[in-house]
Amino acid sequence: MTFSKDGGGKLIGQNLDICHSNSSQQKIKRLLETESSNIYTIKKNGKKKMIIQLPWFYENKIMGLVELSVELPEDIPHFDRD
Prior knowledge:
This protein is α+β, with helices and mostly antiparallel strands. The protein is built from 1 helix and 3 strands.
């Protein structure tokens, strides 16, 4: 499981600043202030992944940030549906 060495599920609800660099903290702050998302792909340990970071809301109040990491197959199909 991702982040299991860092505490796994115990990380939920923790301060994001504790485990992020200053530049990452600035990106997180921008996402929260602008209520925007950050979506990109990476390749790590030979695996291609899509990273999706977006604010989490509860009763129209921003409560934190959610990050999804989705492993993508190398030969994933792509369709243009214009």
